[in-house]
Amino acid sequence: MLNTSNNNTRKMIVINGGHFSSLAGFYEEVSGILMRGADWKVGTLDGFNDILYGGFGVFEYREEIEIVWKESEKSKEDLGLKATQEFYENKIRQGKPFNIELMQQKLEDLIAGSGQTLFEILVEIIESHGDITLRLD
Questions:
Q1: How far is it, in rounded angstroms, from Cα 127 to Cα 67?
Q2: Which of 16, 22, 36, 135 is 20 to 30 Å from the Cα of 71, by its Cα?
Q3: CA 93, CA 37: separation in Å to the nearest integer?
Q4: Are the beta carbons of 15 and 69 closer than 8 angstroms?
């Protein structure tokens, strides 16, 4: 959902955690919202990071936007420990082009309690963009 009628100059973009329960579902959600009218869809963490620079979706390069992640607690659970463990196990099983040693280390860190979940990775990606404000609802 795109809403430009907020009280400041930031364009508001809403991601609804109620619309998905997996990383693939998250990619579908953000593709439909952020890439409306574009001829490709988000399918990787790097791709998600790339579209947040703007310029080829619903907002321009360096445009200030606000992302509101509704039902973020549901997403935090859906994209938590179990989903992240499966994510890394799948990468390890697939092998090339993935860095198996890195994926194994990330999996071990996750199991040890010091690694990031997919939800935390996605939040970090969003927050790494200075022109984007993230609000978890």
A1: 10
A2: 36
A3: 34
A4: yes
CA 68 to chain centre: 12
State phi, psi for 9 to the nearest 5 degrees: -85, -5
CA distance 17 to 25: 9
Pick the closest to residue 132 from 70, 47, 79, 69 (CA basis): 69
pLDDT in tens, the chain (137 residues): 555 444 457 899 999 999 999 999 999 999 999 998 788 889 999 999 999 999 888 889 889 999 999 999 999 999 999 999 999 999 999 988 889 999 999 999 999 999 999 999 999 999 999 999 999 99
Beta-carbon count within 10 A of 105 CB:
13
**Helices assigned H by DSSP within the chain:** 23-34, 45-51, 72-78, 81-94, 100-112, 118-127
